Amino acid sequence: MKSLNQLIITLTVCLFSIQAWAQSGKLFNTDNQLSSNLATQVFQDKSGFIWIATRNGLNTYDGYHITVMKKDMSNFSGLKSNYINSIAQDDKGHILLGTNNSLLEFTGSEFHKIPMLDSKGEELATYVKQVYPLKNKDVAVATSGYGIMIKKKDTQECHAMKGEVEKLKYIHKLLEDKRGRLWIITEDGKLYRKETNGRVTAHFVGTEGVDAQDIQQDVLGNLYLASKNQGVHLLRAGSNVFTRISSIGNLPIENIYISRNNKLYIGCDGLGIYVYDPQTGFLQDNPLFSRLVNLAKSKVTSIIEDNQGNIWVSMLQKGVFMQSNIQNDFNYMASAWAAAT
Fold this sequence. Notes:
341 residues; 4-stranded antiparallel sheet; disordered C terminus
């Protein structure tokens, strides 16, 4: 009976693979509407539009076609740079862009520069790594060289975040957790946490030697810390100790994303995407498929799940890939095989 079950599962996997081939996702690149193959982030706004940041222009997708915005286009005044690193949206619905030298706001008709000011009130030009809206409706701006800048709600300028955190100058990634603490990853892979009282914690048990790249929190309050050299570490809600998830291994991770069904999507540097199921411990190797490019050899810069459950992936050199939600139940084969064996 066990052999028969395995045969059935094998045939099912084959049929699933054929279906995946027939229903592969959609690739956007310079041959298909996108302004550049160097895509740095994909983002969905509150109205459902998809925004794509690249190193040669900003792109918006309405479900049918892409509109390209560049600084030399007269109908998009105020766009000062084509090198877009980060996209976010504030509480007023305005799109915020982090570029290679500034912070911009798009009101729907034009772009406005939001000045970043030093302690003397002089404007800074700095590389923006991330634009991150906070729960209090302020916006944190992670910069390369000037630390964390803060745009207060209802203001049109940024100032340095005050306190102990000012000593951190080269910021890579930010995350505000459910307790209001701000997790900070610096460009050298170090992990810090700004407590609600302003103090900065710099040591976390279990993270020794970790080259941190990204941190995300699930709906249960568990934190996942992704690294370049030691895979993923988990800090369970209520715990003070990070533990390494051994089944993920030492993937060269660039970023992670937690889907609505609590799957951990893992974007790698040159090794594509993996999907980890915390309930089963199963790690799926590159479940997304494209006939046009080898996604398993891609350098992933961001991953999101849109309102319809489609998975979007931005990549350097290969553009942006969208996988329809009908192909996203990657745990099916793993569960079926486990049941048969």
